Every structure is written in structure tokens, then in C-alpha cells.
Amino acid sequence: MDIERRLLCVLAERMVINGYVGRQLYGLIKRQQFADINVEIRPHYFTNYRQFRYGIQLDIIEREALAAGFVTEEELNRWQQNLEEAETTGTFFAHAAGVLVAGRKAESTSSGLFGPPMKSTTRSSQSASQAG
To answer: I want to staple 22 with a disulfide (CB 3.0 to 4.6 A). Which of 2, 93, 99, 100 is the partner?
Structure first.
């Protein structure tokens, strides 16, 4: 596995609550019988190495990867040099995608993904006319 993949594993499996939730969101929402499900893929890209390092907190990920033995210092230095070289030549590029899933919960009396449903109250107004 190349260094980039190992660093992504560190991020997804050791540094966030659920690094794979983007893959699971649609199924979670669908199983809870949401209607009008909408999925959006939100792409992010970087052409500046320094912004990339800051934006994804690469320093923290690299420290964790080193401490956990996912990469060696030599591998990490070589990888960083390649990225810095790409920055120098104007060819640096990195990307990621975020997933946004939304839907409307059908009215139900059972508990759902986010706890018990809220009770809805409807006001109805009726007017009666009396004949005298």
C-alpha cells in the first residue's frame, strides 16, 4: 500500500469517529424510510501544497501515522519531498470528495435513526354557523 493510502487509513480509522460514514449515509437514511432523498457530492481540490497541508491537518495525520507504525520517517520524508517538488514546478494537485445526504422523514410512530419522532400538533379551526 502506498504512503498516501496508509495516511488515509490513519485518518479514517484512527482519527475520526467514523471515517467511512460517507459511504454509509445513503443506506442509513434509506433504511429509516426517508422520502425525497437527495445526494450531493461536494468535491474539494487543492493546487497549493501549503494550503493542502493546513486544510487536512496533514501534520497531525503524519504524527499519528509515525507513532502507530503505518509509515517510516524515511518514507514520509521522501513523500513530502515529492509533494514539495510538485509545488515548486506548479504541478501539485490533491482532491477529496464530501458526501451530503438529506431526506424527509415520513410521519411515523416508531423510533427512528435520530431517536423518537417528535409529536406533531395540528391546529384546526372550524367555524359553525347557527341558524336562529
So the answer is: 99
